[in-house]
Design a protein that fits this description.
single chain, about 425 residues, alpha/beta, four-stranded mixed beta sheet, 24 strands, binds ligand EPZ
Length: about 425
């Protein structure tokens, strides 16, 4: 992606963030809920849906299939009555990862689907073998062509499926394929991320029969039809964690008005370890980063409920402000340390070898010109810039807009000096 001057922001750092902020609706909950809406031949509503690039992209894909969509504030209406087309061009699916979970929904609704290969961040190979595995197990015949995947099946049949390894997206794929399939499907070795629980809650409101969501084994009894969904998109746990990292990096104190209940435990344990403090009070989360000063001897990312890979980069930005040596191991994706080189330009000293990164922090990072290459690393650069002395220009801001609805506005409201140079 070419980076032009429209695609950058300027941050002047060195000031502790102060104040309160509300967190957007969850990107990673909204996207599968949008795919689930395809399973009803009428109108569904996602309330409090984040207005971010990935949601707009999924909207475009659903329109390609014949759906119509409209917004009322942050409420997204999806009318899938006419969504009977079954082909999605590669130029749309290539823009993000979640497009692939539409395959199961298309099979569930129209018995076939053809789509371009999914895209997404450059944080690793991101194969889709587990997605195709679960669909084949349910009877779909899949042709994996030149950048295209086509799937067809008279009617998906429920069966017992053991995932060779757990995957958030493939678990969602299996659930979306099973809710209208014939008979019972038992998915074993499922991922347990909260977004899977939210997807199942949404589907159950539509009339799906599901048990065990949030555990390793999910049972789904297929039904004939589903009614329209209408549910609030939950608060984004990764956006909330990103904002807490901003408070830690700037040694500030913030209040999150709508914290995602019980979804940040592993992160908050680490927050305390580095010297942060927090307390829940009348449904809000008060976080005090003023005492952040302890390096982290070792932390590894894990599947939920372990420390989330999506907060690894924002945490690295915090550790880059803490003198001493911290050590992070990234177990989920193969290439999620792209941030290291940019932090080193700002005065940190991050050494990377395979899945390990060692961070020697610097209490006074200096602003300079840096470049985002993917979503969470881009957000982490904003945190580092807010902590650094002087001014930082961050190129590649469009990566950040894929997943954060108001990150510039929110940090400015917390006292951050952040200028969205020209991007709308
Ligand atoms: C989801 O991606 C999230 N994206 C990711 O968030 C998140 O990092 C990830 O789950 C892990 O929590 C959305 O929900 C849209 P996986 P997903 O399948 O489903 C490998 C963000 O920043 N794998 O659990 O793609 C895969 O390569 C994004 O918001 C296969 O080998 O994650 C990875 O190494 C980034 N074959 C591991 O499994 C497959 O068929 C976990 O991936 C699928 C995945």
């Amino acid at each position: 992606m070419g980076v032009n001057s429209m695609d950058e922001i300027r941050v002047t750092g060195g000031k502790p963030l102060r104040g309160s902020v509300s967190v957007q609706g969850s990107k990673n909950a909204a996207l599968p809920m949008m795919a689930a809406s395809l399973l009803h031949r009428g109108v569904s509503v996602l309330r409090g849906c984040p207005k971010i690039a990935d949601v707009y992209c999924m909207e475009e894909i659903l329109k390609e299939l014949g759906a119509s969509t409209w917004w009322r504030g942050n409420d997204l209406y999806l009318d899938c009555a006419g969504a009977d087309r079954t082909e999605v061009p590669g130029d749309k699916t290539g823009k993000m990862r979640s497009s692939v979970i539409l395959l199961g929904a298309m099979l569930g609704r129209n018995r076939k689907g053809l789509m371009g290969y999914p895209g997404g961040c450059v944080i690793g190979r991101r194969p889709i073998d587990l997605h195709l595995y679960v669909l084949k197990k349910m009877g779909a015949s899949i042709a994996d062509g030149e950048g295209y995947i086509s799937a067809v099946c008279p009617r998906l049949a429920g069966t017992e499926i053991l995932f060779p390894k757990s995957s958030v997206g493939a678990t969602e794929q299996g659930i979306l394929a099973a809710v209208l399939a014939e008979g019972e499907t038992v998915l074993c070795r499922c991922a347990c991320e909260p977004e899977i629980v939210w997807l199942c809650r949404y589907l159950k409101k539509m009339g799906a029969k599901i048990q065990g969501e949030g555990s390793r084994e999910i049972r789904i009894q297929g039904v004939e039809t589903l009614s329209g969904g209408d549910m609030k998109v939950p608060a984004d746990r990764i956006a909330a964690g990103t904002y807490l990292c901003a408070a830690a990096a700037t040694r500030g104190k913030i209040v999150i008005e709508n914290p995602p209940e019980g979804e940040l435990d592993a992160f908050l344990q680490v927050y305390r370890k580095i010297g942060g403090q927090y307390e829940g009070k009348s449904g809000k989360l008060i976080a005090d980063g003023s005492g952040v000063r302890f390096p982290l001897p070792f932390l590894e990312t894990e599947e939920y409920p372990g420390f989330p890979t999506d907060l690894q980069s924002p945490l690295m930005a915090v550790l880059a402000t803490i003198p001493g040596e911290s050590h992070i191991r990234e177990n989920i994706f193969e290439d999620r340390f792209k941030l290291a080189g940019e932090l080193n330009k700002m005065g940190a000293s991050v050494a990377v070898s395979g899945r390990d990164a060692w961070i020697r922090g610097n209490a006074s990072l200096s602003g300079c010109e840096v470049k985002a290459e993917e979503l969470r690393g881009g957000a982490a650069l904003i945190l580092a810039a807010l902590a650094a002395q002087g001014s930082t220009v961050i190129k590649g801001y469009s990566f950040v807009r894929r997943g954060y609805e108001h990150i510039c506005r929110d940090f400015a409201a917390l006292g951050g000096i952040i200028e969205d140079t020209g991007t709308t």
